[in-house]
Amino acid sequence: MLLTSRAFRTSGKAPTPLLGIPVYFPAFHVEALVSPKQTEVSRDAAKYPAGELKGSVFPAFFHSPENSPSPVMANVDRAYNHVRQELAEVGLLSDGLYLDAVELVVSGDKSEGERGYVFEQVGHYAKWGYRPGVIYLPRDLPHQPRKPGMTLCDTIRHEYAHAWFFHDPSFFRDDWFVRTFGTSYSNCNATPYNTWRRILKRNPEYQAGKKRCRSERGQLRYFYGHLLSEFITDYATTNASEDFAETFMFFLKYRRSLDRFVNRPGVYRKLKSVERAVAVAGKRVKQLAERTYRSRTA
Ligand SMILES: [Zn+2]
Questions:
Q1: Domain residue extents for the chain
Q2: For residue 118, how far is its CA from the centre of ligand 1 (angstroms)?
Q3: Highest mean pLDDT range out of 20-34, 83-97, 132-146?
């Protein structure tokens, strides 16, 4: 989920070019494998009495880096580092570079339906310690997944897509995004879904097939089958940024077997396009890593 109340947007925010991502970690680490990182609970969590923590798995105490890690925080750490390893594999993360800058924090707030979120602009949330571009998980995690079978890793994969945009918006202004997802990342309207639906409704083949369905339920299933050939999940119909985040989540998860989606042509096309975009970004990260390494060792 992307929390980006447009009212919080400041105008004229300078884009950060891919090669301008600050190297905030000693660059001589570039050769090392990606170092595991520890997640944290935001300091705000401390203001809640321990008994307020609910959920079947979340224990009634807080994690802080000084305390011994709780089982849930160990799960979060494991999932976070698992996804970081995937990102390193596809080239989007290297020690001290690019998506290595993305932090994950278990927030002091309960879920209001979201499994995770990234702020583009924090606005008045700043006074509670929220920062933009950070992946937040609600403190009452885990709760019901949006879809059966979805995991904590899936949530983190999805949120990394939003964090990626935050950390390198100019990369998303290239043609590839609009060509793939139908409109710009920042367009919050369900424009791609509405356009697709309008075209589908005018399709005589679709109409004829729909007429052959005997019940309303059958018609709905028929419609849903078409929808899932274009959008990877129903949540992806929300807008272009969520379509990207859901597609990116599946790309990371199934990056070695994307052909499993070949029977869903629209979805497959998006996955392949994301794969190409990741390769382009990954190549630049690699060049940056090599340049940084050379300058450090020269
Ligand atoms: Zn999202």
A1: 2-297
A2: 8
A3: 83-97
**What's the 225 CA to ligand 1 centre distance in angstroms?**
23
Average pLDDT, the chain: 80
Cα 181 to averaged position of ligand 1 atoms, centre (Å): 15
List residues, by chain if needed, whose CB lies under 5 Å from ion ligand 1.
1-2, 242, 245
Mean pLDDT in residue range 231-255: 97
pLDDT reported for residue 145:
56
Residue 20 confidence (pLDDT) above 80: no
> What is the 3-state secondary structure of the chain?
CEECCHHHCCCCCCCCCHHHCCCCCCHHHCCCCCCCCCCEECHHHHHCCHHHCCCCCCCCCCCCCCCCCCHHHHHHHHHHHHHHHHHHHHCCEECCEEHHHCCEEECCCCCCCCCCEEECCCHHHHHHCCCCCCEEECCCCCCCCCCCCCCHHHHHHHHHHHHHHHHCHHHHCCHHHHHHHCCCCCCCCCHHHHHHHHHHHCCHHHHHHHHHCCCHHHHHHHHHHHHHHHCCCCHHHCCHHHHHHHHHHHHHHCCCCHHHHCCCHHHHHHHHHHHHHHHHHHHHHHHHHHHHHHHHHC
Say how many Å lie between the CA of residue 96 and the centre of ligand 1: 25
